[in-house]
Amino acid sequence: MEQRFALGEHGTLLVTQEGLRVRLEARRPADGKGLYKVWLLGARGARLLLGTMIPEDGALCLRRVLSRSELERNGCWPPVGAEAPLAFPFAPNPRWYCEPNPRSLVSDPVLRSQIPGSMLCLREKDGFRLAVPLRPGCPLPLSGLFCLARPERLDGTLHLVWFFDASGEPRLPDDSSP
Questions:
Q1: How far apart are the first and last CA of the chain?
Q2: What is the pTM of this model?
Q3: Smaller CB count within 10 Å for the chain: N or C?
Q4: In the prediction, which pLDDT does 175 show?
Q5: How far apart are CA 54 and CA 84, in angstroms?
Q6: Alpha helices, DSSP H only, in the chain?
């Protein structure tokens, strides 16, 4: 059995059953935008992370061989689709950068505890913004501030953006911001 799934507009995932094993081969053009993760989709919303695509011959590729029983246990056999979202942009905007320790910027200890790791950051004269790509089914950092997050497209990928003043206190999104 062989199936081919689109990975967005520019890539494909080839799924080939070989007895009790399943070969998965993903490929998309290298665009220099960042790291892409490949997810296999199953019925009823099941998702299985296959891994991060790596550069190879001018493209981004991922090759995995998994047992059919592992895919069944994860609700992804038979597969119904696949996706490869941009998981970590290299530079969504020249002013945005990857802040390795965003906890140090936020003043509230409860909010600090909701930040699992690195986030995109944009420094401004009156404070800063923190952002993460919006990925359905994945845990959301700063869940206590979800209602203050503003969706924004950064380099074509939908992100949730939080606004903070210079002292690290959350603030309402500025309507004049792009």
A1: 48
A2: 0.54
A3: C
A4: 60
A5: 12
A6: 68-73, 109-113
